[in-house]
Amino acid sequence: MVNRLTQLKRSASASLAATDKFIRTAVGKGATPTRTATDSLVLRDGRQCRELARSTGGLTPAVRLWQDIAGQKLEHRGIIVEHRPTRDNNREYILVRANRREVRRYDASRSDWRYTALGKKLFKNRVTEYVVHVPTAPPRNA
């Protein structure tokens, strides 16, 4: 068990070292992060690339290395998890990069919401809370 844990630590540090070397080389060549079709942010150098920010808005450990090496702050405009959808009839939308994107629609025949791929990402970890006030009557004297 200890040997396996040691191997995992070595593997993670080797992977981090390889990522560090890749980012230093790419920044030295003047490479800048680019946005992919899936709205993630990657740093490309030839045929290789490293993901800096996921399309869900989460940042990867490589982004810290890139910020330290490049001396720049990464501003990722992915999906903001706290984003509140706006409703238009039976459809809900959010703004992603100044474009209105549908996240879910209400299906009256099933009495349920139908989620788009973007909506599944947005509502995946969202918790709905309700505050309920229940009035109580004072106890009767016997």
Briefly, what is this?
The chain has 142 residues and is an alpha+beta fold. It has helices at residues 2-28, 61-70, 117-123; strands at 34-35, 41-45, 48-53, 86-88, 91-96, 99-107, 112-115.
Q: Supply Rg.
A: 23 Å
Mean pLDDT: 79
Tell me, what's the shape? elongated
How many runs of DSSP E, i.e. beta strands? Answer: 7
The strands making up the biggest β-sheet line up spatially as: 4-5-6-7
Helical fraction: 25-40%
Count of spatially separate domains: 2
Span from first to last CA? 69 Å
The computed structural class is alpha+beta
Largest sheet: 4 strands, antiparallel
Order of helices and strands: HEEEHEEEEH
Outline the low-pLDDT stretches.
none
- The number of helical elements comes to 3
Strand content: 15-25%
Model description:
The chain is α+β, with helices and mostly antiparallel strands and 142 residues long. Helices cover 31% and strands 25% of the residues. It contains 3 helices and 7 strands. A hairpin with a 2-residue loop joins strand 2 and strand 3. Helix 1 runs parallel beside helix 2.
